[in-house]
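Customer escalation, tier 2.

The customer says the design service returned an amino acid string that "doesn't look like it belongs to this structure." They asked us to rerun it and document both sides in this ticket. The original structure tokens are below, unchanged.
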């Protein structure tokens, strides 16, 4: 364990040393350009990170994570959602920014941090999604668990750029809900019908008056939406049936839900514009996390599903389904999301107590031969 961590730290140190002291035949490094936080070479043993005040910190296991007070999930630092883009992954870190992975040399994975903590720390991450093939995040001000003194987010949507900080992004669909007039957009999701559904809230009606709440949908976030009913908005959050999933994801979901050990599965994929949720039809309220990649990405088609306790199923192309287990977590900890960057698996974890989160981070491993 110690040797593996040392190798990662040395590799990072060598990279940063070369970046800061270019040789005469090298071009100077642009300090404003995005540079890897670390270069990871994963193997069969897990590499653990916790989300600290200054970004991901290497730890020996979640049991050794720093003591973090339990905080309601909209206010806690944790990986809120995952997107997949080719062989890259994008993690939306609540109250912080983005993490991104990408191939490095022949067998390495670069880990990047794109953060604006002073701004993002005031707000909660409502949604992670693609717009015009760009990963983007929607922020809102949480007033349910806290009486936030922060103003409504004047910049509510952000995207990735080749810089250490996220880039402000305008979404035309939200033009009729300006923060200057008291509007916050606190929900955005893609429904099973393909439309984007979002909710605007305005609490400037007066102390005794209830807040104004409006619901919209649009086929294209680059265009203004149309008003819909509250029932249409609520129906948009319902999971899709397993029959709506592309095969071989469909067959994998059926295998995971037989017997029905989980009520639904949230799946990320390079083929999806946002995470999609599928119902197993069971009464259990538990949820799996999944990753699906078709062969159109240029890599081998594969599907991976994991339960919160780390039990999982995987399948590459048309091979047999493999049952496996990720490294066990301490009591009170669960796995909450995953994705593949090449053949390297990233799994988000967090310490949970009801609706509150304590320590949180992610694990990196190559679980399959």
């Amino acid at each position: 364990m110690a040797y593996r961590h040392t190798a990662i730290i040395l590799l990072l140190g060598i990279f940063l040393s070369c970046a800061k002291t270019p040789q005469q035949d090298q071009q100077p490094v642009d300090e404003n350009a995005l540079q890897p936080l670390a270069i990871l070479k994963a193997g069969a043993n897990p590499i653990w990170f916790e989300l600290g005040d200054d970004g991901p910190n290497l730890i020996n296991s979640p049991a050794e994570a720093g003591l973090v007070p339990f905080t309601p999930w909209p206010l806690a630092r944790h990986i809120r959602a995952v997107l997949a883009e080719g062989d890259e992954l994008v993690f939306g870190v609540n109250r912080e920014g983005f993490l991104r992975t990408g191939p490095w040399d022949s067998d390495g994975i670069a880990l990047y941090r794109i953060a604006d903590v002073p701004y993002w720390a005031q707000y909660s991450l409502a949604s992670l999604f693609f717009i015009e093939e760009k990963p983007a995040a929607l922020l809102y001000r949480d007033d349910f668990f806290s009486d936030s003194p922060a103003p409504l987010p004047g910049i509510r949507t952000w995207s990735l750029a080749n810089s250490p900080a996220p880039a402000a992004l305008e979404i035309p669909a939200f033009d009729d809900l300006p923060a200057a007039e008291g509007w916050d957009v606190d929900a955005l999701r893609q429904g099973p019908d393909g439309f984007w559904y979002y909710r605007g809230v305005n609490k400037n009606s007066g102390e005794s008056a209830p807040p104004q709440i409006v619901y919209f949908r649009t086929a294209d976030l680059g265009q203004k939406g149309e008003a819909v009913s509250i029932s249409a908005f609520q129906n948009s959050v319902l999971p899709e049936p397993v029959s709506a999933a592309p095969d071989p994801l469909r067959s994998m979901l059926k295998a995971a839900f037989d017997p029905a050990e989980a009520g639904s599965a949230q799946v990320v994929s390079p083929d999806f514009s946002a995470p999609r949720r599928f119902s197993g039809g069971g009464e259990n309220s538990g949820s799996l996390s999944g990753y699906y990649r078709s062969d159109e990405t240029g890599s081998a088609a594969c599907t991976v599903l994991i339960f919160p306790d780390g039990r999982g199923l995987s399948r590459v192309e048309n091979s047999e389904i493999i049952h496996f287990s990720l490294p066990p977590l301490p009591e009170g900890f669960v796995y909450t999301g995953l994705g593949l960057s090449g053949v390297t698996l990233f799994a988000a974890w967090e310490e949970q107590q009801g609706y509150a989160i304590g320590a949180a981070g992610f694990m990196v491993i190559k679980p399959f031969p």
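Tier 2 assessment: The sequence is consistent with the input. The longest strand covers residues 344-353. The longest helix spans residues 2-20. Sent an explanation to the customer and offered a walkthrough call.
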